[in-house]
Design a protein that fits this description.
Layout: E1 8-10, E2 13-26, H1 65-77, E3 85-86, E4 89-92, E5 102-105, E6 115-119, E7 130-141, E8 145-147, E9 156-158, E10 165-171, H2 178-195, E11 207-216, E12 226-231, H3 234-253, E13 261-266, E14 271-277, E15 287-288, E16 295-296, H4 299-307, H5 313-322, H6 327-334, H7 337-348, H8 353-371, H9 382-393, H10 399-412, H11 416-423, H12 431-444, H13 446-453, H14 460-470, H15 477-489
Parallel strand pairs: 12-13
Antiparallel strand pairs: 1-2, 2-10, 2-11, 3-16, 4-5, 4-15, 6-7, 7-10, 8-9, 11-12, 13-14
Amino acid sequence: MTEQTYRIQGATGEWEVVIGLEVHAQVTSNAKLFSGAATAFGAEPNTQVSLVDAAMPGMLPVPNRECIRQAVRTGMAIDAQINRWSRFDRKNYFYADLPQGYQISQLYHPLVGEGHLDVSPDEKNPDAVKRIGIERIHVEQDAGKLMHDQHPTRSYVDLNRSGVALMEIVSRPDMRSPAEAGAYLTKLRSILRYVGSCDGNMDQGSMRADVNVSVRKPGAPFGTRTETKNVNSVRFVMQAIEHEAKRQVAVLEDGGAIVQETRLFNPDTGQTRSMRSKEDAHDYRYFPDPDLLPLELDEGFLEECRASLPELPDAKRQRYEAAGVSAYQAGVLTAEVEAARWFDALLEAGAPPVQAANWVTSELFGALNRLGKAIEESPVSPSQGAELLKLVADGTLSGSLAKQVFEIMLDTGQSPAEVVAEHGLKQTSDTGAIDAVIAEVLAKNPGQLEQYRGGKEALFGFFVGQTMKAMAGKANPAIVNERLKAMLAQS
């Protein structure tokens, strides 16, 4: 069964899962949404808190232009409607990590309206595309954090995150499998990182997802949904969906009803558990924030945002494919912005696209994985990679010699030319030298020679191997094959 027709098999037949994601992405900026306080990850508790963040009397919020700019650029990157007029609202509720007693958000008039993402749930079939609608992106301030494990009888409050700028990116309930949700979240994270509006570090909490799941019989109306809060990895989102959908099917088939509630995901067990009921809707008493004027965006601001956008993953992938790179490799190369930038630098240094893609996705990625390094930490630079590929293309190095040179480059940081000169790894295409070695190999193996001339042509590979071994892998394989055929044909 394909992921496009993902179904849960129950005792009463097939069930379909309906999924929507609300992604909270921390905006990359120089300060918080309404104050100048820093937002560095891992700072000591309560060291990045301004008087505004702490809700001291008389403090007034001032919107951070960079946060608004980054949210607009994100909206443009997903082909969304940018609302020239938007407004901040107060969402009123009382909790210990919310010093103001309300959160400044956007309910009725968000900054960004409808957009979409096209995703490929099956990595091996990138042309099978599913369009996921995005309902809105609004900006809001984050709350602080309660710390329950610092004291046996008390909870402490860390307000470092209080006022941090978030984009809440709300999808439509268009996803029908864990794979589609995983592909959507992966693609969204990739775009945010290309744009530079969020670093996408889910393990640090700068991007997290609320997962809405319901089940129904195929073609039936939507069922009651649950919301699993603050899931912080693509894999965990997929696990949460699978567990929650199966749990709901089991409840319904047992004659029960799904309760609209908020749930939490436990990564250790792969299960969700109830956190609080949502049967009675909270009355947040939203109203326009009286301290903030509406946001009005002029054409000059929008044009500056549009002009600042980089080449996005889909456009970059299409460019690579047009240059001859396979669809699968193009997808791999564009998945992470750092890899795409490295590959672009490799092409700019003169590397041929197809050979470059083959080398990066096999040799370079394999070596970096072995070393435990990210591509931006690669001991081999793009210009050195291009030089290595050039030496292969002009016949200076064979494929096997190039691998030896590359390994030495990883260890030493030397250029390919320096490695070749120092270790004498240059490929030889001297037919005289190759002929002499072939003659010696044939003389040393009369039995195999007789069998070959008696019709056992598979022994040709044996003679090639012996010749390459005798020349320490430095002979040009094409010339070895050519000269060996000629000399074997001689009576």
